[in-house]
Design a protein that fits this description.
With about 190 residues, the chain is an alpha/beta fold. It is about 30% helix and about 25% strand. It has five helices and eight strands, in the order H-H-E-H-E-H-E-E-E-H-E-E-E. It has a four-stranded mixed β-sheet. Strands 5-8-7-6 form a four-stranded mixed β-sheet, with helices on one face. Strand 3 and strand 4 form a beta hairpin.
Length: about 190
């Protein structure tokens, strides 16, 4: 089964279960009160599919100042099955940051296709890096030849926020078009 049809089937199947079954009760519970920690309070990694693993490694090592911990290859029927694919072969690299790992994935099989999405499209995601000084971070990006989506802004009351003024953000893309952000957080955007 192709990934797209698998995801469509799985999504509609899950939606039906949530709307009609015991998960509807669970979903209602989640909205009303926090659940006990059952392992969903930590993020291990974000996976980014890339066209060229070597180019992506160079970009993310330069961006973060960290070196990948390893590169490897995985594939076969078991890996394909867990991904909902007929076959798969993936070259990958792991990059460890202080609070999350980044997995860079170059699919050799099946042949990948390029996704294109805008920030306002449903299911579009981005990865945000926290910085101490937005101006220093932007200078570093520009010095590395990375083009920003727009000039950075610092949140003000006029932006419609109730709090978090002083938070600064800027957006840019990696070489494959993955949306990235930098944030110098204040108020509710700052983690305790």
């Amino acid at each position: 089964m192709q990934r797209r049809s698998f995801l469509t089937t799985a999504t509609w199947g899950a939606a039906g279960l949530i709307a009609a079954g015991p998960l509807a009760t669970l979903a209602g519970t989640i909205k009303r009160k926090p659940m006990n920690n059952t392992g969903f309070s930590r993020v291990n990694h974000v996976g980014i599919v890339v066209a060229d693993l070597d180019r992506a490694v160079t970009f993310y090592e330069t961006l973060t100042g960290r070196k990948v911990s390893n590169t490897d290859e995985i594939g076969g029927s078991r890996m394909a099955q867990v991904l909902g694919l007929d076959k798969t072969l993936i070259r990958y690299a792991n990059l460890h940051l202080d609070n999350i790992n980044i997995d860079l994935l170059e699919y050799k099989q099946p042949e990948p296709s390029r996704a294109h999405y805008e920030n306002n499209q449903i299911s579009a995601m981005h990865l945000c890096f926290e910085v101490d000084d937005i101006h220093e971070a932007v200078k570093r990006l520009k010095d590395a030849g990375i083009r920003l989506s727009g000039e950075p802004i610092v949140f003000e009351e006029a932006d419609g926020l109730k709090s978090g003024w002083g938070t600064a953000v800027a957006y840019f893309d990696d070489p494959d078009g993955t949306h990235l952000e930098i944030i110098a957080p204040q108020g509710p955007f700052k983690r305790a």
